[in-house]
Amino acid sequence: MDSLSIFLWCLISIVSVIFIYFRKKYSYWRDRGANYVEPTIPLGNLQFRRAHFKDFIVDIYQHKNETPFIGAYILAKPLVIATSLDFIQNILVKDFSNFHERGGYYNEVDDPLSAHMFAVDGEKWKFLRTKLSPTFTSGKMKFMFSTVVEVANRFNATLAEIVKPTGSELELLDLLARFTTDVIGSCAFGIECNSLKDPNSEFRYYGRKLFKDPKFSTALLLLILQYPDLARKLHVKLLQKDVSDFFLSTVRKTIDYREKNNVKRNDFMNFLIQMKNGQSIDDESSNQMRKLTIEEIAAQAFLFFAAGFETSSTTMAYSLYELALNPEIQEKARQEVKDVLAKHEGKLTYESVQEMTYIDQIISEALRKYPPVVFLNRKAARDYQIPNTKTIIEKGMEIMMPVYCIHHDPEIYPNPEVFDPDRFTPEQIRNRHPMSFLGFGDGPRNCVGLRFGRMQTRIGLITLLNNYRFRPSPKTAVPLMFDRNMAILTPKGGMHLAIEKI
């Protein structure tokens, strides 16, 4: 047999083995008689064309029926796409003990900042959640409120220097990210980031690099997330070394300075330092079972920064976009701001912000139409029989809750592409299923910082609406396109609007 024949036989054998392997893997849902979408070798239900991950979920969701989920595949792994709101409520809330893990990737040894509360599972997550939850109570938000308002005033001053008397066309996404970067820098690290004055400040530089220049492509990141145990064995790090070094160094220097000079502030870092020293946040004289390490503190501070500045800035950007396209909604919101401020002597106080319910409805509707996180994921801790069915979700199976699809389902939200803040009046909320809005997740693993996120978004929008009017510009994209390279739902090319001083 000549060399060419040997090569061809080897090639045919390899291709045949791969084909048989995938055919066996792709029989999982068919063998169980489940509603599923037929996969394609080797990507499963992922698309060959480059697209945002939300498009993968949208394509699957179109196949929903009366069953509680759709079977799908990412590469060779089967997963559950939950479509029934009752089933989602079981996963997130009622049967949380069986779905307490996210099953994501983190590497505490090689990449300590990746081991934050959002990523870790088991007892580690339970410990961190228990200790960190008190830092985000309404009482703690009141302590941080004045700091956020100070940054908002600086934001207003920065815009006043940029906006011309006749109005200007601006790319607002970066400006809003600089505002939220300065807010998080002050509240999480107690540091004046000065991103509003200097767009290339260290915090803004590394925040931009974290999201705009990720270490891995979407395809490689997908492989890491699908095979976390293998990635850990290969010592894979999610973060770029300079990003990790910057945040670790910043936290160490901040803690060292505060402890040497006995500096105490009502901010997130101060609460973390208390936990590092074995003190309870609510009672400094009591001791905890164990203390947080410097690396654990840095990981939580990093999470607060990464999750806080990008999601809030994009939510504000989407809110302003819709207000620009819907001037009557914008004027109604501005009138609420002016009326409430007039009752409080023109001062923006914690209480006055709570009274601006229409502003909060606008934020909720922006989160509905443009959820920053397009899906939630959980992993089965043990075999689970879906109530009122014979279907078993096997241990280790990943379940995905399609947030974007639920928020755009016309059976849940009629005319879902229409921006309507009145969807979030108390009466409308009561009339919908509790799982119909998942902008902050739900259950014990919901977003721990939702109060802070809403607070800084409210303050930012109130400040802007009180001082500026927003309109579409020739560069405003209608409809919006989304950046397929960003995990968070981000407008492609930024957010261009016309802005004029009131």
Automatic annotation (TrEMBL):
Any one cellular-component term (Gene Ontology): endoplasmic reticulum membrane
Keywords: Endoplasmic reticulum, Heme, Iron, Membrane, Metal-binding, Microsome, Monooxygenase, Oxidoreductase, Transmembrane, Transmembrane helix
SUPFAM superfamilies: Cytochrome P450 (SSF48264)
Cross-referenced Pfam families: p450 (PF00067)
Compartments where located: Endoplasmic reticulum membrane; Microsome membrane
Residues that coordinate or bind heme: 447
PANTHER family: CYTOCHROME P450, CYTOCHROME P450 6BS1
Family label: Belongs to the cytochrome P450 family.
Protein name: Cytochrome P450
Organism: Hermetia illucens (Black soldier fly)
